[in-house]
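Title: Prediction job returns without error message
Component: structure pipeline
Severity: low
Priority: P3
Assignee: unassigned

Description:
Job completed but the reporter wants confirmation the result is attached to the right record. Sequence as submitted:
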Amino acid sequence: MLQHMTQSEPPVKEAEATPPQWPVLLVMLVGSGIGLIALLLVLIAIGSLHRLAAATQSGRATDVPQLEQHISGTFLGCQDKRTAEHLSTRTPSAHSALEREAEAALASKACTRFRAGDPVYLDSVPLLRGQVQLHRKNSKTKWWTDSEAIRP
């Protein structure tokens, strides 16, 4: 019995882990670099969308430098954006009713009429088409009107 205890078994040789070959390391490094670049691009896109959403919620789709613009024709501008949108949707069947509403809005000074060539300054511009917010020279009153009112 003592012999059994004193006799030691040969140590079991553990399998040695072979270090990864250089092509494997290169693929791992390139893969992680591409992953980091992709993550960076996603974060930039999310930040841009967040800023765009915040600007849209504040009613300002884009910040516009205060450059003088000119009206391209005769357009109605209203202080309330919904009123301006409503009065700009002219259909043949509702033409006379909208004309009466527009005249009432002009009489109450809730809306104003812009004529071709009037100098204005943009306060808010839509990303595509829609309503622009602008004001006249030396006036702080802001009006909403069709984006088509501004000369290209």
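Comment from assignee: result matches the submitted record. The radius of gyration is 35 Å.
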